[in-house]
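Worked example 3 (structure in, sequence out).
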């Protein structure tokens, strides 16, 4: 098969080359990949430690070429979107059936490939907040891929969503996606919030925690900023109005129900009840511009590579 393999002799760090076909286990389906989407964290955390020749990547959409031998998962020919720790950037991908969502037959594979990491993270982060109907919640990094989905899903769940985005120009779009308020720094939030989803880190993480009221939960689900977060002495202590607050993390691919979540998200996106933003799309044979833009976090949305 062909794959985007790690090659540090290439300026992009990747090269389209031949690679061995994956061999599925009994609980994996073999997917013929049609589109992949790139994530900045893949370049920040995965690529630097991967050996030359490796095939990495988390998000891919395509069609089931061989169903899982144990009888789980979708049948041959089913359009799907998939999640995994590696192997997405290739013509063929072996995926655990619990990480496969089925998609409508008329859906665009490129759009579907943007869902697993971004929308999956947003959905699971909001669940960690507990019931949010009628409650105020905060989303930092709201103009990014995960943040945009979190704003939409939070509004769908009945929350009063306060979106935080550094660029004031993002306000119009974020309000259109469902944000009730848009600010440029979480420190601007004066009234307490019940929950916060932080996707940035750095100084915004302690500011988001400081915005929590009694019983509030902060979910840290990303670290777009490169600097480490630091809490001032006493910042984690409680007071009469801000006690029993918590900070929560989670592993996206841990737990059950990911296949169900991805299937639901795919249906919502295909029906127009959920929106994605593709900022760059092109053939994977010319991936260098997309790789550079994603690596440097220069895109106001997802980068999608179509396999031809």
């Amino acid at each position: 098969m062909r794959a985007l393999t790690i090659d540090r002799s290439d300026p992009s760090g990747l090269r389209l080359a031949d690679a061995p076909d994956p061999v599925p286990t009994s609980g994996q389906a073999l997917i013929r990949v049609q589109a992949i989407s790139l994530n900045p964290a893949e370049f920040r955390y995965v690529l630097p430690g991967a050996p030359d020749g490796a095939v990495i990547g988390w998000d891919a959409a395509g069609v089931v070429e061989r169903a899982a031998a144990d009888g789980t998962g979708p049948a041959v020919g089913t359009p799907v979107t998939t999640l995994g720790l590696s192997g997405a950037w290739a013509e063929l991908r072996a995926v655990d059936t619990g990480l496969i969502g089925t998609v409508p037959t008329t859906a665009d594979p490129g759009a579907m490939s943007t869902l697993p990491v971004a929308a999956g993270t947003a959905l699971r982060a909001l669940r960690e907040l507990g019931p949010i109907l009628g409650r105020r919640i905060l989303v930092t990094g709201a103009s990014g891929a995960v943040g945009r989905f979190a704003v939409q899903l939070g509004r769908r769940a009945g929350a009063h969503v306060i979106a935080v985005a550094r660029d004031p120009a993002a306000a119009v779009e974020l309000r259109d996606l469902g944000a009730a308020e848009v600010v440029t720094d979480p420190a601007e939030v004066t009234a307490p919030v019940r929950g916060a989803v932080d996707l940035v880190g750095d100084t915004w993480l302690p500011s988001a925690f400081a915005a929590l009221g009694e019983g509030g939960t902060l979910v840290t689900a990303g670290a777009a900023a490169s600097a480490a977060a630091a809490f001032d002495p006493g910042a984690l202590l409680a007071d009469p109005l801000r006690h029993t607050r918590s900070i929560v993390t989670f592993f996206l691919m841990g737990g059950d129900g990911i296949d169900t979540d991805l299937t639901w998200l795919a249906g919502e996106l295909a029906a127009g009840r959920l929106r994605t933003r593709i900022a760059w799309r092109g053939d994977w044979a010319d991936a260098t511009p997309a790789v550079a833009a994603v690596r440097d976090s220069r895109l106001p949305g997802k980068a999608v590579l179509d396999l031809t």
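Notes: Residues 161 and 218 are 14 Å apart (CA to CA). The mean pLDDT is 95.
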